Every structure is written in C-alpha cells, then in structure tokens.
Amino acid sequence: MTGDTAPVRPGEELDIARLADYLRGRLEGAEQGIAVEQFPGGHSNLTYLVRAGSREYVLRRPPMGPVAPKAHDMAREYHVLAAVHPLFALAPRPCLLCEDASVVGAVFFVMERRRGLVLRRQTPPGFPARGASEAFIDTLAALHAIDTSALPLGRPSGFLERQVRGWTDRWRRAQTGPLAQMDDVAAWLAARLPASPAPAIVHNDYKLDNLMLDPAAPARIVAVLDWEMTTSGDPLVDLGCVLCYWPEPGDPEARRDAVIPITAQPGWYSRAELTERYAGRTGRDLSALGYYEVFGLFKVAVVLQQIYFRYRQGQTRDERFREFGRRVRGLMEVAADLAERAG
Question: Alpha-carbon distance 60 to 267, whole Å?
Fold first, then answer.
C-alpha cells in the first residue's frame, strides 16, 4: 500500500476478476493483471487505486446502495473531465468510461493518477499556509477565466434558480426528521435570488481537500479533483462554497466542526482576504456575496444530510457518518444567522 491508500473497506469491495477481465485490452497495463486498493478519504463517491502492471490509475464509482436521482453521475464526470482537461491542466485526464453496471455494480470511470498532498485534518510541519491560501484562490480565479462558450457543460441561463430548487428538493428527499431552520433558509434563498454575473466554469465543490498539492512545494497545486457537479453558470456559487468550507478563528463551534478545520489555524488567509484577492484577480462585483455564502452552507448541509440518510437506512456502514445529523443542525444555525444579518 502507498501512504494515501488502504485496504478496501468491508462492503465496498469490487469484483476484481470481473474488473480485470473488462479492463484487459481497454486500459494500458491491464493485460498484466490488476491490484486494487482504496483511497479512504472523502464521504461520497468511492475512489480506488488500480495498479495495472507498472501503471497506476484511479477508479471512481458511486457509493454503494441507492443514491439520489442525478447524484453521483460518473458518466457526467468523465465527460466533464474530457472537456475541461485540455483547457485546464490541473483537471486529471480521463482514460476510460464503463457504463455497464454489471462490471462493478455501477457505472464507473478511470482517470490518470496524480500524486500529491491532500489536506484533511492537519498540515506538515512548516507548511506555507499563506502561500497555499494564495494558490488556492488564484486557481479558482484561473478556472473562472476560461471561456465556456465552446464547452458542453450545461445551461448558464437560470442556473442559480435551478441550483436553489434542486438542492431544496434533495433536502426534502433526504430528510430524517423535521428541521425548521433548513426549511426557512431554503425559502429565504428562493425569495432573494440575485442577478448572476457572466457565466463561467463552476466546479461546484471547490475546497481544500479536493486539491492536491506538491509535497516538495506545498504552495503549488498539482491537481483539482472531484468534477462530478461541474457545469457552466454563476461563478459566485463556487466562491460562496469556498467561504463556507473555510473556517477561521472565532467562528462558532458548529461551523468549525462541520467542515475541515485546518484554515482556522495560524497563517491561513481569512475569508475577507480570500474575497479581496479573488475580486482583484477577477474584477467581479461581490456585493451580493453574503447570499452565496448562505447558499454554500445550505448545500454542504444537504450533502451531509444525504450521507446521513444513507447511514440511517443502512446503505453504508461507515461509522464516520453517525454524527452527521448533528453537523447538519449546526450548519443550519450558522446559515440562518447569516441570512438574518443579510436581511
């Protein structure tokens, strides 16, 4: 095993013989046999390391069990990467798409493996937090500068309204009990839609643990991961997501505990500094950014609720998810407070 992989978790095994048979002749190196390990991080799609001879690949598939409609769309992520990789080298190169669910139990795709450091709960000694903050926000600005006119990534018109409606529907399908603050925030978002700026590529899950950093120069990004929800639309949706995933000293405990707390440590940019640097790089009007931050918190809460719903239904046995209901409630307290202050 490598330092970032682990044995496959019980209940998440792949049929290695069937997978090897399918990959033979389709993926370079597979004719020499394959070995599979799992990348244990992440809470949603399942990600595996596939060794095929001397080559290494990454296989992504949806979580086990039933999933929400249109969620965990591996075919879509494959096609997004195929479109974006030639224009944005930090997006990994896709290698193969399998839409035959009988091979591993679901549609999956294989992409090149990138090597690097993924930040989750801690940073290495001497980590350049300020430089990493700048690289993080500059990379988002660079992604948002790509011309989307020739990319088959969705319909920018009405994007924000569809997003709010779609995430509200996901919340309702994943409810495990009443939560008035969630319903109130959903209504607030629907009633206060701002005018969107010119469309850009929207990653839709841009956060620290979806980036891979160069271990020898950790302020340099070597990959941006998890393109499943990428589309063309309002780029401030990405910036709002960034802010909700970026805790800082003085935040309520509920906000810090619901996401990776690394950026609350000394040296990292504040949310205000990120916003200022993004504005300087892009020239975009950020006067309505409070709305997008509330929406970001709402989205994260829905994602956690979907995972908690699967845990409650027995569709996953991963004990990391036991406390996700509490984390959802904490995020909604923060979102409701921000919405009240925004008016």
Answer: 34
Q: Average pLDDT over the chain, rounded to whole? A: 92
- Distance, CA of 79 to CA of 111 (rounded, Å): 11
Is the Cα torsion angle 285, 287, 291, 296 positive or negative in sign?
positive
pLDDT band at 1 (very low <50, low <70, confident <90, very high): very low
Distance (Å, rounded) from C-alpha 216 to C-alpha 1? Answer: 21
Beta strands 55-61; 94-98: pairing state = unpaired
Q: Cβ atoms within 10 A of the Cβ of 286, count?
A: 15
Q: What is the pLDDT of residues 237-273, one digit of tens each?
A: 999 999 999 999 999 887 887 778 899 999 999 999 9
Q: Is the dihedral of CA 224, 42, 81, 143 positive or negative?
A: negative
**Own/partner long-range contacts of 91-94 (Cβ < 8 Å, ≥24 apart):** 91/223, 91/224, 91/227, 92/58, 92/223, 92/225
CA–CA gap between residue 204 and residue 229 (Å, rounded) = 6
